Amino acid sequence: MALPSFYEGLDEKVPESLGDLQGPADGVVALPPHLAWSGFTEFDLAKPMVRMEMYRTVITAGRRVDYEAYLNADHLVSDWPTLRRGLGPGYRHAWEKKLPLRKTAV
Asked: Phi/psi of residue 80, each to 5°?
């Protein structure tokens, strides 16, 4: 019996629209332990590389409710060309298939 793909079910986790992403646009965000259990737990959204590290953490470890609470649509869209390079192909495809994010070559 084969194990399911690591990316199985990602499509269902991605929000239906960018409008669902109501995360903060500025300030310092402290992620809960189920998302940030080691390393950085607080992220200054004014620092693009720090913000993208938080977004990568939320996207790869979170659930839809986490996406909606911690991701900001404007930041996600503007950071996507760089952020997508730090995500696995399953995450990139699931998010780009469902949301109008800037697309760049793979």
From this structure: -55, -45
**Which portions of the chain are predicted below pLDDT 50?**
104-106
Contacts of 91 (CB under 8 A, 6+ apart): 7, 10, 59, 60
Using the Cα atoms of residue 17, residue 92, residue 86 and residue 82 in order, give the sign of their dihedral.
Answer: negative
Please state the pTM of the whole predicted model.
Answer: 0.88
3-state class (DSSP) for residue 63? coil
Q: What is the DSSP letter of 32?
A: P
b/e code 26-35 from CB counts within 10 Å (16+ = b): eeebebeeeb
Beta-bridge partner residues of 32: none
Q: Tokens standing for 81?
A: 């060309």
**Would you state the structure tokens that stand for residue 75, as one six-digit string?**
């930041």
Q: Roughly how many angstroms between the first and final C-alpha of the chain, as a whole number?
A: 31
Backbone angles phi and psi of 34, in degrees to 5: -70, -15
Percent of the chain whose predicted confidence (pLDDT) is above 70: 90
